[in-house]
């Protein structure tokens, strides 16, 4: 299984600390119960984001995975990420949204293969 986390934020690139990426990788490896090498996190900073008419710091996340996305697990993933986004990116919880996307194994590839090959 591979987990891909895309973070779109209006926080400046210079304010995205490497510690955020490291701790997010470690935390999600724990909640998904997989190796850190199976977690990919990328941050699109400096994005124009307007929530409720405000340009205050915000973040929109999309998490893609072939497994581990369900009603129970998503609560753990969400709690982990919300605390890290508020800690490192200084985004208030009411300005964070996460979309979880379960992906069929044939629809995700790594190392030149899909997960069903």
Question: Notable features of this structure?
Answer:
117 residues, alpha/beta, two-stranded antiparallel sheet, Macrophage Migration Inhibitory Factor
Give a verbal description of the structure.
By secondary structure, the protein is of the alpha/beta class. It has one domain: 2-Layer Sandwich (Macrophage Migration Inhibitory Factor), CATH 3.30.429.10. 28% of the residues lie in helices and 26% in strands. It is built from two helices and six strands. The chain has helices at 18-32, 71-88; strands at 3-9, 39-44, 59-65, 96-102, 109-110, 113-114. It has a four-stranded mixed sheet, covered by helices on one side. It has a two-stranded antiparallel ribbon with strand order 5-6. Helix 1 runs antiparallel to helix 2. The model has no long low-confidence stretch (mean pLDDT 95).
């Amino acid at each position: 299984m591979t987990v891909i986390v895309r973070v779109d934020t209006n926080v400046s690139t210079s304010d995205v600390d490497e510690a955020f990426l490291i701790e997010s990788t470690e935390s999600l490896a724990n909640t998904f119960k997989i190796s850190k090498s199976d977690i990919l996190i990328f941050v699109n900073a400096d994005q124009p984001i307007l929530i409720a008419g405000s340009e205050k710091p915000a973040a929109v996340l999309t998490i893609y995975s072939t497994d581990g996305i369900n009603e129970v697990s998503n609560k753990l993933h969400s709690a982990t990420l919300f605390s890290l986004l508020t800690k490192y990116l200084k985004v208030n919880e009411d300005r964070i949204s996460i979309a979880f996307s379960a992906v069929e194994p044939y629809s995700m590839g790594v190392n030149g293969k899909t997960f069903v090959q």
